[in-house]
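User: Can you predict the 3D structure for this chain?
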Amino acid sequence: MKLNRINVLGWLIIIFLGICTFFLKEELSIFTTGLGGLICVIIGFTLAFYKLRKS
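Assistant: Here is the predicted structure, written as structure tokens:
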């Protein structure tokens, strides 16, 4: 699978969330816990595994 900009952006979001969860849990709690964190993870994985359609 060839990575494009959309996939790279998704992986960057996932890596950012992982770092925030590990180091900055209290400072960025809106992104690391609860419904906000779940939405960010879903967006990240959707972008990371998105496949472009050939037209």
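The longest helix spans residues 5-23. Helices lie at 5-23, 29-32, 34-48.
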